[in-house]
Amino acid sequence: MMFATELLVGGLLAASTVLGAALTRVEYPNNATSKAQMWVYVPDKAVANPPIIVVIHSCQSSAESYSRNSKIPWKQGSDKKGYITVWPSAPNSCWDVSSPRSLKNGGGGDSQAISNMIVHALDKYKGDPARVFVTGGSSGGMMSNVLAATYPYLISAVSLYSGVPAGCFVSSSGGVAQWNNSCSGGSSRATPEAWGNVVRAMYPGYAGARPRMQVWHGSADGTLAPQNYQETIKQWTNVFGYPQTAVSSVKNFPERNYQTDNYGDHLQGIYATGVGHSVPSNLTASEQWFGL
Ligand SMILES: *[C@@H]1O[C@H](CO)[C@@H](O)[C@H](O)[C@H]1NC(C)=O
Ligand SMILES: *[C@@H]1O[C@H](CO)[C@@H](O)[C@H](O)[C@H]1NC(C)=O
Ligand SMILES: *[C@@H]1O[C@H](CO)[C@@H](O)[C@H](O)[C@H]1NC(C)=O
């Protein structure tokens, strides 16, 4: 008998060690038309009033597969620092960054679904509303820009990798989750003011705080032309009223052949010479940008 009990206890302990924290699908109050799924990773040692980090996947991916990608180290960061990561999963193969639903505050698209996930995460995990952060690569980088434009009041800072300006993938026919060759190829160019107007039009009349933006791009990006880096910088410099030239630059930082350009406390660009699509996430540098 005793032997059997010991075996049972030992088995339970082993099972709980093996199970531990895991990416889990969570239902959330969602008033958007988009039925994007919400997945969450709560580390075993979550801190009180945890920061919430939204990690947005690329095309032909999902919350589950992105969270297993070795170049996307946010689960490990969560284990180490105790913040919670929210992993939205797109209803289409890419995020909808082309239709009016998604390109507008309250439009009902994927961006609104993700905003609902942020609200729910803050409520369910008693998250810190002053420490909500967004990151993503490629299509997730595009969505990061769109979220910053459509739901600025929910987000403190963004660190986005290899995306395009907010609104650059707009579909002339209003299509959902459409690819846009003009933008991806780097031919969608506009003045800083025109790009800034695109952001302002996504939430007309908004005059509150906006997230601090960190923009990464590789010079050898063959999927989303490097010109999209310059266009994104033009966009946010205009929104923040910064000059077009960086106020300070650091060569070979945070890595060799990367250059960091600071435009003001709300905008930093990091251009990776020789790096293709998509620039791997640098957990340390993104966490630093988030103040974690
Ligand atoms: C959707 O829900 C959010 C809160 O999660 C709320 O702020 C917003 O007003 C709602 N929108 C509509 C159209 O009901
Ligand atoms: C692609 O996006 C640009 C803006 O970046 C827009 O002017 C153009 O109409 C879009 N193309 C299509 C086919 O929707
Ligand atoms: C990431 O950035 C930090 C500085 O924030 C730097 O020290 C580190 O070398 C970078 N990581 C990699 C893998 O290059």
From TrEMBL:
Keywords: Carbohydrate metabolism, Glycoprotein, Hydrolase, Polysaccharide degradation, Secreted, Serine esterase, Signal. GO terms for biological process: xylan catabolic process. It is found in: Secreted. It comes from the Eukaryota. Residues 1-20 form the signal peptide. InterPro entries: AB_hydrolase_fold (IPR029058), Esterase_phb (IPR010126), Plant_Biomass_Hydrol_Est (IPR050955). SUPFAM superfamilies: alpha/beta-Hydrolases (SSF53474). Pfam families: Esterase_PHB. Belongs to the carbohydrate esterase 1 (CE1) family. This is Carboxylic ester hydrolase. It comes from Lasiosphaeria hispida.
